[in-house]
């Protein structure tokens, strides 16, 4: 009896020991496999992916319009452990998909894998063809993807999202998508065994860009570049009081929905990431420096003989004419190179250079866009030849960014306050420093109004608008000197009694190298008229015929 009882007890002990060992194998030894399987299943379902925040334009009434949103688009994925013939599956898929993942056959042959992403943002017709193959282990489904409803419009400012090299997710590339990556992307969830941590959705980004002003700027710029057969162009509109960017367009752009079809160079935003010699628009800055320093006034006179000899070189006016006795206001009206060089000499090289720094031409503006450059005024150093300062006075031999330039002009428009330009509507206006006094700003603005009135092309009846043209020769970086190609720039703001906007328009290499007065000035007038009407700005020239 005792023997039988001992035998039975031994058998039960063996069975119990086997169960314990089996449970150990399931819970401990195979835990990594089950965990990986669970994580792959969650990845395939998309439940762990954070929804990226949207990007919205904001009009004058605070209404939102989506500039970037999320849209369900087909993806193609594989469950490799279900695939019977990886080589044949690869052959059939490559006949349909134009851009699948690299090493496709190698990925399909991973028999322990439960999920492999093959292609994103596939059009519905392609997804249908893949499904009709009926390959076991190859599937399609819809996934939330980034969508840009306006195609190429404002693409260099918005940027795009592209696959992340580190995982199967997306990451912002260029523009706002890159700059605000952390807040837009949110945080993906995690799965570990039976524990699941849900995703944190990305934050929406509301922009200062007004969709109505933006649309009008795009129309004007596209028409300008195409009719003048120019290489490229840009328009920026800024609220001078706050620094808000109201419109920002570069031509040509690219379609961020199909970014893979475009050259890398097209992704660069030259308004922020490129520098150029601005030409005669810089004469306004030269006058502002001299007037604020007390070295000249708008009525200071200068005898223009048409030629100014400096450092053994001759500086001539653009029209190759002598204009006799002229005031500094006349210098702005007639855009005289000799007069600008005279004003700079009266101001003094050191003082002139310090004012350029005050206006921000040697530093980044701080705009919320990636890879911003600062201007280059390094040639203006103590001991430099006189001619270096003379040519800088009319915007050649110095190189700056467009965003620096419009920001400097906005400081004249608002009474001398240099503001930080920004695109995120959640930011608050931030003053960098004062550039010139309010009185000096008013005098310079009046000089610019006189230039607009005398030229007439940029005039709008009933309003005092300030503006200045610039026609700069394009440098020859191979041979030195300058080519016969030009860059046209116009900077203007108004009404000067209470400025609502500052506009920068740039046109690169228009056919025939025309003067700015025939290209960018009419474009400025059209956009300024639209903005005045849009905001319902009352005239500030009551009873005037102009």
Characterization of this structure:
- It is a single chain.
- The protein is of the alpha+beta class.
- It is 35% helix and 21% strand.
- The strands form 7 sheets. Strands 1, 2, 3, 4 and 9 form a 5-stranded mixed sheet that branches. Strands 11-10-20-19-18 form a 5-stranded antiparallel sheet, with helices on both faces.
- A hairpin with a 6-residue loop joins strand 18 and strand 19.
- Helix 13 packs across helix 15 (386-392).
- The chain is elongated and about 90 Å long.
- The model is unreliable at 23-39 (pLDDT under 50).
Structural class: alpha+beta
Query: Overall 3D geometry?
Result: elongated
Uncertain segments: 23-39
- Biggest sheet character: 5 strands, mixed
Percent range for helical residues? 25-40%
What does the average pLDDT come to?
88
- How far apart, in Å, are the first and last alpha carbons? 125 Å
Gyration radius, rounded? 32 Å
Task: Count up the helices.
Answer: 18
Any chance you could write out the topology, listing elements then pairs?
Elements: H1 2-29, H2 31-45, E1 55-58, E2 64-78, H3 86-94, H4 104-108, E3 116-119, H5 124-133, E4 138-147, H6 155-158, E5 160-163, E6 170-173, H7 175-179, H8 181-185, E7 190-192, E8 195-197, E9 205-206, H9 211-227, E10 232-238, E11 245-251, H10 270-273, H11 283-292, E12 301-304, E13 307-310, E14 313-316, E15 324-327, H12 328-334, H13 337-347, H14 349-358, H15 386-392, H16 402-413, E16 417-419, E17 431-434, H17 438-455, E18 466-475, E19 482-494, E20 501-508, H18 520-535
Parallel strand pairs: 1-9
Antiparallel strand pairs: 1-2, 2-3, 2-4, 5-6, 7-8, 10-11, 10-20, 12-15, 13-14, 16-17, 18-19, 19-20
